[in-house]
Design goal:
The complex is a heterodimer of chains A (about 425) and B (about 300). Chain A is built from 18 helices and six strands. With about 425 residues, chain A is α/β, with parallel strands linked by helices. In chain A, the strands form two sheets. Chain A has a four-stranded mixed beta sheet, with helices on both faces. The radius of gyration of chain A is 30 Å and the shape is elongated. Chain A starts with a helix and ends with a helix. The mean pLDDT of chain A is about 80. By secondary structure, chain B is α/β, with parallel strands linked by helices. Chain B folds into two domains: about 220 residues, 3-Layer(aba) Sandwich (Rossmann fold), CATH 3.40.50; about 60 residues, Alpha-Beta Plaits (2-Layer Sandwich). In chain B, about 35% of the residues lie in helices and about 30% in strands. Chain B contains ten helices and 13 strands. In chain B, the strands form three sheets. In chain B, strands 5-6-7-3-8-9 form a six-stranded mixed beta sheet, sandwiched between helices. In chain B, a hairpin with a 2-residue loop joins strand 1 and strand 2. In chain B, helix 3 crosses helix 4 and helix 3 packs parallel to helix 5. In chain B, about 40% of the residues are buried. The model of chain B has no long low-confidence stretch (mean pLDDT about 85). The chains are: A alpha/beta (about 425), B alpha/beta (about 300). The interface between A and B is medium-sized, with 24 and 29 residues.
């Protein structure tokens, strides 16, 4: 029994690990993840370089000059040598504002202008500042203008309330409060931890967990499907019991996943040791976040990866054994993938409310435990009993699932053609 | 018995694919499992191999219920063949050899030896999918017998083979038989079975129709016909009480005796008959096809 299962494990493992595509994937994945981190930032900079020509109709008469200064200063403060992308030009409202605006809209339409800011006379009115733009989703423009206008309005309010101050002072006074955050662990230890960095680290771990559960789960499905469509399954079943095939496949592919993670952590470790300084310079949040990771989190990460792997791969295996074609499999795998996607897209909720009743309950539901409990652990270590309970429940669920999948697998792998109905599958449980 | 199947039934839905099967395969025979398509041949084979579990009854292989040790001693070639297409030929064969309990070194020797034998040593490092269909058939065949099984089970082994591989297949399988391997093979081609087997099991609708040694089956179940080439009065043949049927022609008669009657008696009566010149008296063995058709008809009459 042992040696036979071992032969399957060995084949599954070696066939995958000796493939070029495995190593390409192993190298590409971190590159892609880094790209996901840095490309948006780079793209933002690219868009900053562009010229943003904006017409300003200043009906208050108090805004144009200081706005011009503020925009220039903002660029200087962002420690950027490049000139401000904003080029603002004054336009008069004229006798008929609507007519003037119509002309300006023509220019915006022809891309001669990026947009037009219309400042009303009353700073305290709700809708005093209007912006007509080619793209109102361009945060560089919107944030830039808001940042430029804010101090002007505040200064005006102060002046009207008999407080006179130079613009630099006002900018200093209205600077936003930055909270320096410390993460307190269950034992009472605390570490300086930046809000951004802990979100960032949590996202990274959840992403890795999500991608690997999906990739290796589907590898199981495709493996079985291949064995069915090439008809090698019958030869295998004469040599091995269904249980040996199933166990061997699960463990073999799981080891491939662990190998990949090992490669990641080794390269990650080397990069961290070798270029910690560079990393810190490139992304201080990354460096800070890495320093804030609790070593215990890594242990939990491995535990939840293994649990999640067996739970999801067993489900994918069952699907693979029930299908005879790619199309069938694609239709049937949807619901299982949803079980992974739901916690993935709710990451923000669990990060913000790790202790809420709903988070606690969901993290104890075995199919969600691996991802949701992992998020909770990364954000704010939950009580130990909850972690242990979630592990116990998951293991119990896994054992039951394996038992059921083994039955489905045994009968399903030799079925071709029409997909069996739920009724038929229930019948198998009674029969087998 | 190498394989014994006792009162086995297997149901799919409401349909019994195998319905009270009794089979015994003695050591060293070439055992033909014969029957029309849908008779239950593949289902029976799959139950012997433990791929399906019987709903009722029991099956022993090498004297015990099937276990991993027994699996190591069996080689199986299913009707629907397939290999891992992305694997290299050598890795694939090594996988099969090792999974039958061969050590690394023994496995490598066998793999090399067999690749030489089928003149394919140059494809060892190629992927299966790069091979021609004929080459793949050879690789499949090797993968079945690498571990020198004591029991070889072949499901419709000759279907879909090209003539060269067909000959190779027959050669290898007779060679193994001569070395003492027991062979079970299924086919719906009765003529083929008559040439190859020394023991047969005819099945229909999941039940055994006739089982046993080929010659014995032919003698006891078949109604052999007697061809008489003679000139003279032959009408008396129809009146003999032990003759079941006689067809008369000008210089020729075909006679079928009743069950259990020896042909010698007919010859004696012929010799005693006056005015008859006998040129030829020949007993023609029944074909399996005839036996099958007769027995199956008989079955449906009884029902």
């Amino acid at each position: 029994m042992k040696t036979r299962t071992w032969e399957i494990i060995r084949r599954e493992y070696l066939e995958r690990v000796t493939k070029k595509s495995f190593w390409i994937g192993t190298v590409l994945m971190p590159v892609l993840m880094l790209a996901m981190l840095f490309v948006p930032g780079l793209l933002m900079q690219v868009s900053l370089d562009k010229e943003l020509r904006i017409a300003v109709i200043d009906r208050s008469g108090k805004v144009f000059e200081p706005l011009k200064d503020n925009l220039k200063n903002a660029q200087a403060e962002a420690s950027n040598d490049e000139p401000s992308p904003f080029i603002i030009e004054r336009r008069e409202a004229g006798a008929d504002l609507e007519a003037t605006l119509a002309g300006i809209k023509q220019e915006i339409g022809n891309k001669k202008l990026e947009g037009c800011l219309i400042v009303g006379p009353d700073f305290d009115a709700e809708d005093n500042f209007h912006y007509f733009g080619r793209n109102v989703n361009n945060l560089t423009v919107i944030r830039g203008l808001q940042g430029g206008l804010n101090p002007i309005v505040v200064a005006d309010r102060l002046t009207r309330n008999k407080i006179d101050a130079p613009p630099e002072k006002i900018r200093e006074w209205i600077r936003r409060v930055e909270l320096v955050t410390f993460q307190v662990a269950a034992g009472g230890d605390s570490k300086k931890s930046n809000l951004g960095s802990s979100i960032f680290i949590t996202f990274t771990f959840v992403m890795i967990l999500y991608v690997s559960l999906l990739v290796y789960g589907i590898a199981n499905l495709r493996g079985i499907l291949e064995e069915k469509t090439t008809r090698i399954m019958e030869v295998l079943l004469a040599n091995f019991t269904a249980k040996q095939i199933m166990t061997g496949k699960l463990i073999g592919i799981g080891l491939v996943g662990l190998t990949q993670m090992l490669v990641y952590s080794l390269t990650g470790g080397v990069i961290a040791a070798y270029g910690a300084v560079t990393a810190a310079a490139m992304s201080p949040e990354l460096a800070e976040g890495l320093a804030a990771i609790n070593p215990m989190s890594l242990v939990y990460f491995v535990i939840f990866f293994v649990l999640g792997y067996f739970i999801f791969s067993a489900m994918f295996l069952a699907i693979g054994s029930l299908c005879s074609t790619e199309e069938d499999a694609q239709n049937m795998q949807g619901p299982v993938i949803m079980l992974l996607v739901i916690p993935m897209v709710s990451t923000m909720f669990f990060i913000s409310n790790p202790d809420s009743l709903i988070a606690v309950i969901i993290s104890l539901i075995p199919v969600f435990t691996p991802m949701v409990m992992m998020m909770r652990i990364l954000v704010q270590t939950p009580p130990l009993w909850q972690i242990l309970l979630s592990i116990v429940l998951s293991v119990a669920f896994m054992v039951g699932l394996m038992w059921a999948v083994a039955k489905i697998f045994r009968i399903g792998v030799l079925m071709y053609g029409k997909r069996p109905s739920v009724k038929e599958i229930i019948h198998w449980f009674k029969a087998a | 018995m190498i394989v014994s199947v006792r009162s086995v039934r297997k149901r799919f839905g409401n349909f019994y694919a195998v319905d009270g099967m009794e089979m015994g395969v003695p050591p060293g025979v070439i055992y033909g499992l014969l029957g029309p398509n849908g008779a239950g041949k593949t289902t029976t084979i799959r139950m012997i191999l433990g791929i399906f579990l019987p709903d009722e009854g029991a099956i022993d292989v090498f004297g015990h219920p099937l276990d991993d040790r027994a699996r190591d001693r069996i080689g199986y070639l299913p009707e629907e063949r397939g290999l891992y297409r992305k694997m290299k030929v050598r890795d694939l064969l090594m996988f099969f050899a090792r999974s039958h309990g061969l050590g690394q070194k023994a496995a490598a020797e066998r793999v090399n030896g067999w690749l030489e034998r089928v003149e394919l040593p140059h494809v060892a490092r190629k992927k299966v999918e790069e091979l021609s269909k004929g080459m793949q058939q050879k690789i499949q065949l090797i993968s079945t017998i690498l571990h020198e099984p004591e029991l070889l089970i072949l499901d419709e082994p000759f279907s879909g083979l090209d003539p060269i591989n067909l000959q190779l297949m027959k050669d290898i399988f007779l060679e193994l038989h001569n070395r003492g391997t027991t062979v079970i093979f299924s086919t719906h081609n009765m003529e083929e079975a008559e040439k190859m087997c020394n023991s047969i099991c005819l099945i229909n609708k999941g039940r055994v129709v006739v089982e046993g040694d080929l010659h014995h089956v032919k003698e006891s179940y078949g109604h052999s016909s007697i061809l008489i080439d003679a000139s003279g009065p032959l009408e008396f043949l129809k009146k003999l009480d032990y003759v079941a049927e006689a067809e008369l022609y000008e210089n020729y008669a075909e006679v079928r005796l009743q069950d259990g009657q020896a042909s010698g008696r007919l010859l004696e009566d012929l010799v005693r008959q006056p005015g008859l010149t006998i040129r030829k008296f020949e007993q023609v063995a029944p074909t399996l096809r005839n036996i099958f058709i007769e027995r199956v008809k008989g079955d449906s009459h009884e029902n």
